[in-house]
Every structure is written in C-alpha cells, then in structure tokens.
Amino acid sequence: AYTELSGDPSGTVFAFHLASSWQQPLGIDGLSIDDVSLLYRRGRGGSNTVGALGYVNIGSKRLAMLLRVEEKAGEWTVGMSMMTDSLSIADVKRLAGKLGYGDAFPAIENRALTLHGAVLEIEFATGRGGGGRPRVALSASATIAGSVHVDVLVSLDMTYGEPRALVGLSLGQFSFADVAPELNGTLVGDFVFPNTLLVMSNKDVKVPAGDMSPAEMAFYDRVYGGTQTAQFSAGLNFAASLPFSALPEGVQTAFGLDPADAIVVEGNPGTTFGLIGGTTLRDLNLRAWLPPIEPNQGFPEWFVGGRLGLELTGEPSLGLVGEITLAIPDEAQGLS
To answer: Are strands 135-144 and 148-159 parallel, antiparallel or unpaired?
Structure first.
C-alpha cells in the first residue's frame, strides 16, 4: 500500500491504495470492489469528499468505478459512478437484481440490446423513501432493428413507494416506414416524428415530472416537456412529439392549432423492434389528444365543450376519437 499527499488549486488530496477487495460496499449483496484506492479531498470552499476508486465485476464485464461521499454545508450525498465500453442487457438485469429492482425489470430479450459507452450513476440518497434502494441511471447508445441507432436510459427508482424500472430508447427523428417498408406511401408510414421514444416497463406506471431523476427529466423532456406526467403501460410503449404543422391544414384551421406547437402521441407501436414479443403491426394503436374545445361565438348555446383526439392504427388509418358535452336543454350529456 502507499499514500500520497498533494495540493492543487481546488484544495488538498490525500490518497491511500489498498491491494484488497471491499466486499458488499454500502450493504449491496453480491457486489465487491477490487484494487481499491481510498481518497480524501478537502475543497477550498470547505467541502469534504471521501472516495474509493476500483473495479467492479458485473457478469463478464469489469467496470471502472468511483464511489464518493460528499459533504457541503452539512448536507451529505453518496454516489457511485461506473463506466464501460459495452454492456449486455443481461448484465444490466443482474445489476438491477443486486440493487433490489430485479422483479421490476421489464422482460427484454437478452440478445436484443448491447449497450455501448455505458455510464452508470448510482445515488444512495437518504430521506427519499426508497426503502433502502438506490436511484440508478444508466446512459448508453445501441442499435435496434438492425440499423436504427438509439440513445438508451435505464432508470431504477421508486414511485409512490413501489420500485420501478424503465428502459427508454430515444430514436430521434422516426417514421414507421423506417422499420416497416410496407407502410411506405401510407398515411401512417408518411408521418415523420421529430422526437420519438420507446419505453419498456413491466407494469403500468405514472411518473410525475417532480418524481423524475435529473437523468430522466433530461431524457423524457424531449417529448413530454418538464411539466407533464409520463404514463407507461406494461410492455413496449411508443411516445413521440407530433408538430401541428404535420397535420392537414383543414384540421389546423378547424381547431385553431398553431403550426409551431406540438402534441404527444402515445400508445402501442405495433412492432417489437426485436426487443420483446407479442405484437404485430396490425396492433398499432396510437392516440394524441388535441387541445380542449371551449365554447365561443362560433358554437350554439347548447354546446358546453369537449375534446377530440387523433388515432393512428395499423389498418393503416387516421381517425378522430373523443367526446362532446351538450346541454339538452338544461342537463349535460356526454356523447362519445
């Protein structure tokens, strides 16, 4: 073992290298840190950081790791960062099991995803009601359906006291004709979504923006924006932003839509992208709600209000769904 004391513009660093392994760091069963180096850093602003450098084995992969405990103005945070050039989804499942999220992890085919340039952040924050489970965010890139490049976010966290595990894929600009050439030239295939997400979950879950981790907020903001609740069903979910400018001009005019705005399209993508089983393009069903219809001078007095939405199906077809409320004559009835 050896020690090193050094000074730099940001403070003082003390390092101590150990040859032994650290078993069950922070109480995580089945995890060990090899080739450990301990360090302490005293920042000039009065902050204190205690850290451990080493390597963690997850499945067949050896990951470089930094464990840090930071204190500033009496507030403590505990975190762990890992990096690796590639990681299989099976390795991620094993890690989720070690951290208490095994039962919540979605049923993704083991060969479906190989993650490249993976960066794993684990936060052991106290007082979050996590039941001893840490908050986890794994960012990486991958290729699905043979040629579609995606950004990946695996997030493990707690919502309403229950563990949740979401695997999100950001496709960027996307059309269904990219993965289903038979839809070329059809109404569904010709839609181009500028921001598109695929999200896998093993159960129905709602995630309010206030419950999202910083990594989730940045990832899902591409479609949902910072003030919406992301809602996902068990299985594979599709979510994309659809600009009003992509809709027929008659629809834009009828509903007073600003072509610069957009709505969120959600539902069953009808194709598995090689990730999970159980659906075909005939199962495609996506829905997006237009802004509520408010009574104004253009409507008769008996019109109370309503809402309409767009529905895309694998027929392929585009239709309107929704409900309106009328006063006949003094009572309101809902017509769907």
So the answer is: antiparallel
How far apart are alpha carbons 249 and 208 in whole angstroms? 33
Is there a cis peptide before residue 316, judged by omega within 30 degrees of 0? yes
Question: Which of 190, 182, 184, 84 is CA-nearest to residue 141?
Answer: 84
Q: What is the DSSP letter of 203?
A: S
pLDDT tens for residues 194-250?
A: 889 999 998 898 888 778 888 888 898 888 876 677 888 888 899 988 878 877 787
Burial 162-180 (b: 16+ CB within 10 A, else e): ebbbbbbbbbeebbbbbbb
Per residue in 79-98, pLDDT tens?
Answer: 888 888 888 898 899 889 98
Q: Is 216 helix (H, G, I), strand (E, B) or coil?
A: helix
Which tokens belong to 180?
């289903």
CA atoms of 139 and 5, how far apart (whole Å): 34
